[in-house]
TrEMBL record:
GO molecular function: zinc ion binding
Cellular component aspect of the GO annotation: nucleus
Keywords, ordered alphabetically: Metal-binding, Nucleus, Zinc, Zinc-finger
Organism annotation: Rhizopogon vesiculosus
Transmembrane segments: none
Protein name, as recorded: DUF659 domain-containing protein
Signal peptide per UniProt: none
Higher taxonomy: Eukaryota, Fungi, Dikarya, Basidiomycota, Agaricomycotina
Length: 306
């Protein structure tokens, strides 16, 4: 978490490099922004006496972020080794970018930090990297073991790896089988592919929600064609086809995926209902878990606007 600085820091190249790197990372900016003349002019405007050597380039920012991550992993590794007396569980997921089809693997570690008078549960992302090759159990196991090695969870002669939680695809079963095989080659026998592989309950629930929503939206495509034309939001009794249309279909059709004029009128009505800053109802997404609940929750909050 980052907070606003209460006082200005001493100007130095290191401080400006840190600030630009944090801007790139926290605001999901392109590394190339550091080389943009408009951005560099902003830095000069804030520090008129700055010279070219004071302003970091995209290469400088990239190197700084990489080195900061290496230092972070080193510190995390030392912390886990010093304070973790038990074993370390992990959660992992693999997904592909819709536009580019590039695959990425994320890995989070969970452990209990034991002190003299208390135990504290910690969770930390220890890996996020691109994946090459097939999404097979053999390939994924190789990547996961490598990430665990980097964090100090697995070494050449020992392993603190406990349970691995992943979604319920068959390749995750073979991933655990291959992790067990890789550890056995090092004479490490404390990971059991059956006992230590935990299916993800949230993934099962999301699959069910996805199926339900697909049926609702498919029906809505047929039913709402008439509803759009028969619905007049200015009428006092502005019910949709006598309440015969499913509530999810009504929300999607009449408040989210509607014309710009309807959206503008909806925002005007919010002002009349005392909502100073108009709110939008977010469209649910099958790949973002819980968004259907968020859509319905926001719609319920705005139920007075009708």
């Amino acid at each position: 978490m980052f907070q606003k600085s209460q006082k200005s820091k001493e100007y130095s190249r290191e401080n400006i490099l840190h600030a630009v790197a944090r801007f790139v990372v926290c605001d999901d900016q392109s590394l190339a922004v550091a080389d943009k003349h408009s951005f560099r002019n902003c830095l000069v405007a804030m520090r008129p006496g700055a010279i070219l050597a004071d302003i970091p380039s995209a290469h400088d920012v990239s190197s700084y972020i990489h080195n900061s991550f290496i230092n972070f992993i080193g510190g995390l590794k030392a912390k886990m080794q010093a304070t973790t007396t038990g074993r370390i569980s992990t959660t992992t997921d693999l997904w592909s970018v819709d536009q580019t089809k590039a695959a990425f693997l994320g890995l989070t570690a969970h452990w209990i930090e034991a002190r003299e008078t208390s135990w504290t549960l910690f969770s930390q992302v220890i890996g996020f990297r691109g994946i090459s090759g097939a999404h097979s159990g053999h390939n994924l196991a190789w990547y996961l073991v490598g990430l665990c090695e980097r964090a100090g969870i697995i070494t050449a002669h020992s392993s603190k790896l406990f349970c691995l939680t992943a979604d319920n695809t068959s390749n995750n079963d073979t991933t655990c089988d291959n992790i067990e095989t890789l550890l056995h080659r090092r004479n490490i026998y404390n990971f059991d592919a059956t006992q230590h592989r935990l299916p993800c309950l949230a993934h099962v629930l999301n699959l069910a929600i996805t199926d339900i929503m697909s049926v609702i939206t498919r029906i809505a495509n047929v039913e709402t064609t008439t509803a759009i034309w028969e619905f007049d939001p200015s009428l006092p009794n502005n019910r949709v086809l006598g309440d015969s249309l499913d509530v999810v279909a009504a929300i999607r059709t009449l408040a989210i995926k509607c014309s710009g004029q309807r959206i503008e009128y909806f925002e005007t009505l919010q002002g009349k209902c005392g909502i100073e800053t108009p709110l939008k109802i977010p469209l649910h997404s099958n790949v973002r878990w819980g968004t259907a609940d968020g859509m319905l929750g926001r719609a319920y909050h705005l139920r007075q606007v009708r």
